[in-house]
Design goal:
heterodimer, A: 219 residues, mainly alpha, two-stranded antiparallel sheet, 7 helices, 48% helix, 7% strand, B: 388 residues, alpha/beta, 2 domains, five-stranded parallel sheet, 15 helices, globular, ribonucleoprotein (chain B), Ribosomal_mS29_met (chain B), mitochondrion (chain B), Ribosomal_mS29 (chain B)
């Protein structure tokens, strides 16, 4: 239980629909001449309507990455954000170390192919883990069928992250640290190998196999 | 016009230095504008104008001299970058200049490196120690005295003295490292010593045999450590010229462990004093300046210390009364955070080694953010740049 920190919850997750999300980036202000009429309307709206309270994990610095923040939130258990963020930074460090070591030991010709930036590795690995099509359970005539169904972007991102985390928590040796397991999985996913990408391919194959039931979907 | 001449003469001077460096047969590694990678020549050239520049420790030297001496994060950095580069900083230069000018027929000077957490005391000590190694001194290096006063699994009552405690694992580990570092001296130094009533080493036996005995027989290893230190002390100032002459460099990191408290318990569950540990007792004897022919380089450390607040960094706070009285008189050398030039150099080094990957960290604003977040503290900057 994360009781030791004296964080008071300022922001609820239930707000009136007309509340706008805060935009912490410094480049939010663009001169008026470059805005299209819709964007001008949006700016007008921002001056008038109320804005939700900013989360304590959002920063105006350019080092702030929303995808990484989302992943940290998904890894967090019992509200221990410090631990989750620590694991994430250690993961990024491990990925970078492995790649930079490879970079320095390889000859000059092969150096350009090695991706050393842990953030691009993370983004690309996540992209490689995202399923394109999913399965939903539909009941018809007393029997439930697995029907192939399109997924929204949020759902795809959620599934990719969930699979990564559960894979690392369950299917690895218990004595390795989480950041080691994560870095191994992420580097494998970056190269389109590993268990998570395999799970995505299995889902695609199931969806392909159940093509006949696609008409059971009414939405 | 005078300024132009000055600039031209300075550039010629630097070109001459680089020419000499590039002609050195032992030199290897890349010579970028901020990298002095000739270890042997650059040692004599290390002066104030080289502050902030990096120099490469040759891999062979790292293996021999620092089997256990470098901080763990620096070891990771060596593995990642495939080279070990140390920044030349004013405290290390000060220490090396004192070592150059000291009179070695007199008792040894005691140097204490002190400073806030993460400012680079251990690295400065390693730099000075590398200088001593290249000058051919005999190195006695205790990489972290705190490891001897806590987390000890085997605490045996001493065989030779009734009220002392031995630490066989730590002692034998240290003897192995000592052997790796000082291989060339092991056959030269002669001695004679009595162990227990049954074992004795005859006079004229080389030091190597004594060290081997300590490594092989764990029970007497702590006593062997004491004997080795005693012999080195007696012989350091002995032969002034000729074959047997050597200068002794005693380096202790985490000096405050010798006079602090231990977290070890005796069998009747009372706390153990550092006095009662053979290893600590022998190192304390080394710290006295009743021998000649060497130097004592030490660094304080709050990070591994026991029962000391994190804000304490001055010698009087960390050593305590007893430690301070024992170490006095000493030469204090203060180590502080990077200044702007050193920060620049560190930043450029990380860029050169392809370490700063985040696009924002390579911009001016990102650099300002790094300065703000780390306050130019070397260790915090290193940890920040690790995931950026």
């Amino acid at each position: 239980m994360c009781v030791s920190l004296s964080l008071c919850l300022v922001r609820w997750s239930r707000y009136n629909p007309y509340y706008l999300d805060p935009d912490p980036s410094k480049d939010a202000r663009v001169p008026e001449s470059e805005l299209s009429p819709e964007e001008k309307e949006l700016q007008e709206l921002k001056t008038v309507s109320p804005i939700k309270a900013a989360l304590s994990s959002d920063t105006s610095s350019a080092f702030n990455d929303p995808l990484i923040s989302k992943f940290i939130n998904m890894m967090m258990q019992d509200g221990n954000k410090i631990l989750a963020r620590g694991i994430m930074t250690q993961t990024l460090e491990t990925i970078k170390r492995k790649q930079v070591e490879k970079y320095h030991k390889s000859p000059a010709a092969k150096r350009e192919e090695i991706e050393c930036n842990p953030y691009t590795v993370f983004h690309q690995a996540l992209e490689n883990c995202k399923p394109i099509i999913g399965l939903a359970s539909v009941q018809k005539g007393g029997k439930s069928y697995q029907v192939p169904v399109p997924l929204t972007d949020n759902r795809r991102r959620f599934l990719a992250m969930k699979w990564l985390i559960t894979e690392c928590r369950d299917n690895k040796h218990r004595r390795t640290h989480m950041y080691e397991k994560l870095s191994q999985e992420l580097l494998a996913a970056f190269a389109n190998e590993g268990n998570v990408v395999k799970r995505k391919h299995d889902l695609h194959k199931m969806a392909e196999a159940n093509r006949a039931y696609a008409h059971y979907r009414w939405w | 016009f005078a300024k132009k001449i000055k600039i031209v003469s300075i550039t010629f001077h630097y070109i001459n230095i680089y020419k000499k460096l590039s002609k050195c047969k032992i030199c290897y590694g890349n010579l970028t504008t901020f990298n002095l990678s000739c270890p042997f020549l650059s040692q004599t050239y290390h002066s104030e104008r080289h502050t902030g520049q990096y120099y490469t420790l040759p891999a062979a030297h790292i293996q021999k001299l620092f089997p256990h001496g470098l901080p763990p994060r620096f070891q990771l950095q060596i593995k990642t970058f495939n080279e070990g580069c140390v920044m030349v900083r004013p405290p290390a230069l000060e220490l090396i200049s004192y070592l150059k000018k000291a009179d070695y027929s007199k008792p040894p000077l005691r140097y204490i490196l002190y400073g806030d957490v993460g400012t680079g005391k251990t690295m400065c000590l390693s730099h000075a120690l590398h200088y001593c190694y290249t000058q051919g001194w005999l190195i006695v290096h205790i990489s972290d005295a705190h490891l001897w006063v806590k987390n000890c699994k085997e605490l045996l009552p001493s065989s030779s003295r009734p009220s002392r405690f031995d630490q066989p694992i730590q002692a034998s580990q240290w003897l192995k490292n000592f052997k790796i570092t000082n291989e060339r001296f092991l056959s030269k130094v002669q001695l004679g010593y009595v162990w227990t009533k049954r074992e004795r080493t005859e006079k004229g036996q080389p030091l190597g045999e004594l060290v081997d005995q300590g490594v092989n027989r764990m029970k007497s290893s702590s006593d062997v450590v004491g004997a080795v230190l005693r012999e080195l002390r007696l012989q350091a100032g002995g032969a002034t010229e000729g074959e047997g002459a050597f200068k002794l460099a005693v380096a202790v990191d985490g000096l405050n462990a010798l006079w602090g408290k231990t977290s070890l318990k005796k069998e009747d569950r009372t706390m153990c004093e550092p006095e009662e540990l053979t290893l600590i007792h022998n190192v304390r004897k080394m710290m006295k300046n009743n021998w000649s022919g060497g130097a004592i380089l030490t660094a304080l450390s709050q990070t591994g210390s026991l029962f000391k607040p994190q804000s304490a960094y001055l010698p009087s706070e960390l050593l305590g009364e007893e430690g301070f009285d024992n170490m006095e008189p000493f030469v204090p050398v203060s180590v502080s955070n990077y200044n702007e030039k050193e920060f620049e150099s560190c930043y450029l080094y990380y860029l050169d080694r392809n370490w700063l990957q985040h696009s924002h960290s390579r911009s001016e604003e990102g650099k300002k953010e790094l300065i703000f977040l780390s306050n130019k503290n070397p260790s915090i900057l290193e940890r920040l740049c690790a995931f950026l």
